[in-house]
Each structure stands twice: as C-alpha cells, then as structure tokens.
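Q: How do we represent a protein-ligand complex in a form that can be generated token by token?
A: Start from the inputs.
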Amino acid sequence: MAATRWHVRDFFSSLILHRGKFDLLQIGIINRLLKHRAFQYAAMMVNLFVFWVIILSGFFGSPVGNRNISIVFVWILWWFALIVLMVPLLSRIWCTMCPLPAFGEWLERRALVKKRSAFKYLSLRKPWPSKLNNIWLQNLGFLAIATFSALLVTRPVVTAIVLLILFVVPVFLVLIYSRRVFCRFICPVGGFLGLFSMFSALELRPKDKTLCRNHMTKECVRGNDNGYGCPWIIYPGGLERNNYCGLCFECIKTCPYNNLALNLRSFGGDILAKTGRALDEAWKSFIMLTLAGLYILVMQGPWGVLKDWSNVFWAPPYGWALTGVGGFLPYVGIFWGLSLAVTPSVFFLFTGASKLASGVRSVPLKKLFIDFSYELIPLALMAWIAFSIPLLLVNWSYIVNALLDPVGLGWNVFSGLYVPWTPLIPAVIPYLQSIVLAVGLAYSIKYSYRLAKQNFPEGKAALKAFLPQVVFLTFVSMIFLWLFMG
Amino acid sequence: MLKRQLLAGAWFTLLIVFAALFYAPSASGGEVVTVHITARQFAYEPGRVVVNQGDTVVFVLETVDVTHGFYIDGYDVDVRIIPGETQTVTVVADTPGKFKIRCSETCGALHPFMVGEFIVLRSGVNIAFLGAAFGLVGVVLAATAYVWRRGD
Ligand code: SF4
Ligand code: SF4
Ligand SMILES: [Cu+2]
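Then emit the structure tokens for the protein with iron/sulfur cluster bound:
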C-alpha cells in the first residue's frame, strides 16, 4: 500500500514537476504484462479485428461518411485518441498495437507469439538502401495522402482502399527487407508519430549505458530465446530519443540484465537530444506545422471555394476535380508549396536573423536551421490537438450512432435508439483551442532558448539568437489564433 | 533594466485599453440587421457574417441544392433549410466572439465540414480575439522572461 502511494507520488512529480524520471517497469503488473510474449500479439489482434470490420464496412456499408464506422472510427475516434492522448502521453504506443504490419511480421517469424530460431525467418533480408535511410519517403507520402484528405476522410470506400494497401505493402517489404522497414521508412503515420513522440511523456531507455557498451553479445540487437532482436532496426542500448522505437517491448524481454527502463519523464525531453538531428526531420516539422494550419483553414473554415478545390474526385467532364483541375491544381500547389518551400524559407530567414543577432560567426547556419527546427515540435503538436478538439466535441454522436448501427444501413441493433447530433460546449471550443495553442507556444519558447544555449553557450549570444525565434513562434501562433477566434 | 520597465509599461497600457473596451458599454449595436444566406454543398454564402453586439439579426435562409441545416454554436439556433422554401430565423447577438455556423443535416460527403462563421463585435472590434491575442502575448512575455531568468 505504502509502495503504491510512492508510485503515485513519483508518477506525478516526474510528469508535472519535472523532477527526475519514474520507471513504469518497477510496477509489477506492468512489468509482467510487457514481458509476456502474448501481450503485443493480443493487442494487435484486437485492432486487426477492428480494422477488418472497418475495411468491410468501408466497402459494403453506407457510402455516407458520417454514418459509416470506417470514417467515424478512423477519422474521429482513432485520430483523436492517437494525437490527443497516445502521442503526447505514451509516445509510439500506437505502434505497439498497430495491426498494419502484423501479417508481415508473423509471416517472417513464422510464429504468432512464440520466439523462433533465427534460421527459420522467411525473408530475403536485403539491406535497406542507404539513400532511403531517412524519413523523406514518409514526408512525401504524408503530404501525398494529405493532398487527398478531403476524399479520404469523407468517402468510406477510399479509407477502406487505403487501409487495404497499408496492409499489403508491409508484407512485401518484410519478405524483401525483413523486420519493420515499412514502419521505419514508409508508413505515412509513422513519420509524424516519430517526430511528435519526441515531446511525449514516456520513453524507453537503457538504465546504464556503460553496461550496454560493455555487453558483448548485445541480445537486444540479436535476440535470444526470450525475444527477437529489435524489429525496428535500432540499438536499444544506445537510445537517446523516442523517434524510431516502436515500443514493441522485445528488448525488455531479451536484455539479460534488465537494463531497460520505461520512464515517465517531463514533456519534450527529446527535443534537446543532439543525436539524429537532420534535414528530413526538420522538414517533417515544417510539413506538420503547415498542414495543421491548412487543415483548420480548409476543413474548419468558412471558405467554400477551398472545400470545392479539396473535394477532388473523378467527375467527367472535369477529370479529377469537382470544379475542374483548375481548382485542384492551385490547391495542390498551396499544400506542397507552403509546407515544402514557404514555411521553411520564412523559418530560414528568422534563423539567419538569429545568427546575425548572436554575433557569433562560427556556428554554421545549416546547423542552426536544423537545430532550431526542433523547437517547432510542441507548437505543431498542439496545433494538431487543437484541430482535433472539435472533431470529437462536435461529432461524438456519430460515434455512438455508428456503434448502434455499424454499417449505416439501418440495421439498428437497438432499433429506435438514435442520438441526435448535439455538439458539446461548441461555443467554448475556440477558447479551448487557444489555451492548447498557448501551451504549445510556451513549450516551444522554452525549448527554443535551450536549443539556442546548446549552440551559443557563451554569454548573452544565446539570448540574442533566441529572440528572432520568439518572434517567429509568436507570428505563427497568431495565425492559428486568428483561425480559431478571429 | 529600463527595457524591462518599458516592456511592462507597454503591456500594462494594453491591459487598460483592453479592459476599457471590455467594460465600456458597446459603442454600436442595437440595430435590426437582415442577412441573406444561401446554403449549398458544402458552404454558406456569405461564409462570414459580422454583426455588432446587441444587434437583432434576421437570417433569411435558402438552399440551392439539397436540404441543409443551420446551427449556430452557443446561440441555440438549429433550423432546416429545405429546397424551394425560405426559412427565417432571428437571433439577438448578445455574446461577442466568433461562433461557427454548422450544417446539421447530413447533406453529402463533406457535410461535417460545412461551416460558416458568425462574428459578433463589441464596439466595432472582435473583443474575444483581441483578448486572446493579448493573452497570447502575455504568455510569450512570461515564457520568455522565465527562460531568460532561469538561464542555463
Ligand atoms: S509505423 Fe505505421 S504501420 Fe508501423 S506500427 Fe506504427 S502506425 Fe503501424
Ligand atoms: S528499442 Fe526495444 S521496444 Fe523499441 S522497437 Fe526496439 S526492441 Fe522494440
Ligand atoms: Cu449541409
């Protein structure tokens, strides 16, 4: 009893008061659960079932999006749970239970739960091309999907087709390259999960790095009788950031010294990690920040013409757009141009200003540009959370109704029961969004200064370099605030 | 030191201006305003309706295609707009701020994104936005001052 109380205290102090870390594996039941070989299998199975119901209902259920669980479950319930709860609080916990790579993984291992000998793997095990050893494919894939999002989030059959593709592709990739290359390099969700998990309050880390370094057999990499070597192709003993750890918990099973911890920590810890920083991740930030704004503008704004442009589908004689390609092309131009070119350019100018202001010549501009881009993570994540608040508060009744009538064909299981569309506290939503935005801004400012300090440890240079960044962050936040309240 | 005092002074002045705007009786409003709105898949034209606090707003609603709904966040308005009919609804704009107008009748693929905006000004300004912007600047100053003082 007393022990439990200590846990609770440590839990809160590590989360809120930023006092140290708390290893969840100290809690017996969590430890036993995560070390159990059937745990991940069971979690994946549940979602496998749900996702296949979603796919079937997408193909054969009601074509009306808000009556079909494929839309309502994926784009309201799953999306909200993912971005508002799982990512900020529990890092890539979604990847623990994601069903998409399940078939490939089981096929390669030729086992569902059991640990098989390495000689039995079903895969060519080709090395992943080193040119693609980054998240550029994920950046572009996400942008491509986002371009068609109006279609994706409103047409059940489109969601079903995309999900089907996302089930098939990993199988082939596993047979050629083995393990989670799909998750690491292709999955369009994986890219932003990695980036935003840097902000998350949970981390999996080695307790004692020297022990890892001196441990010759490195079972977390090679696997042993208790589990597989890291399926995400990383070295768990060297973990410094969350980005590419899919929380599969194999390494906590294989490590003979129990040298891995699953820590609760303060928000944003990885933003200061110096390893792994690169342009692909910087661009991921630009894309996520820009798309949050564009989604709010297009989907939640009052501009009908943008919706017409976005609502692209095959409609002769127009071709691929309701209003003709004349509308869709500028739309694509805005999405790609803003997120790949305009936002990065503006940010580049402010970074140039930071360098000038610092008065320090020796720090390369490119390094500053990359490093400062990580300050955008809290703001971008909070902008996405703000975007997601009305999704749930306004449309929650669709979820209940979809549960009552899963395929939307009027086979209401509890006939007569129907929840009318009733937005929850709709007038308060803009204020909630603004508060969430302000929290993101405050974290971004905090990390901006710490990033400046990493580059300019001497004197007042960091402070001077930091001020242009504050101006940039404030400017971006004001745009969001205007979208919410102006 | 002087800089910090200037900053605090500027912020304080803003605060007073804001408070004056907020507590002074609204300089405008109290008129009857008629607003014609045409609903279509998936927008209202005009998309943004701007009035003054205290105005009585008469919405005259029509649709050019299918049946749409007309719901205003926080204003207890929810009516149907049926093709071929004109629907009228009257609202007293008593709360300032920006309120989404939402379609409450499933009307096609982008139905959940069919929104308009009803903006109620106070003394000619969007006081809610102004207040929030002011608050955001406060957050910026506070966060900046905090990290600055904490150093390292
Ligand atoms: S990276 Fe993508 S496919 Fe892989 S587990 Fe995560 S969400 Fe699923
Ligand atoms: S580091 Fe451990 S938990 Fe993370 S992906 Fe690798 S094996 Fe799984
Ligand atoms: Cu409508």
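The two ends of chain B are 20 Å apart (CA to CA). The first helix of chain B runs from residue 2 to 23.
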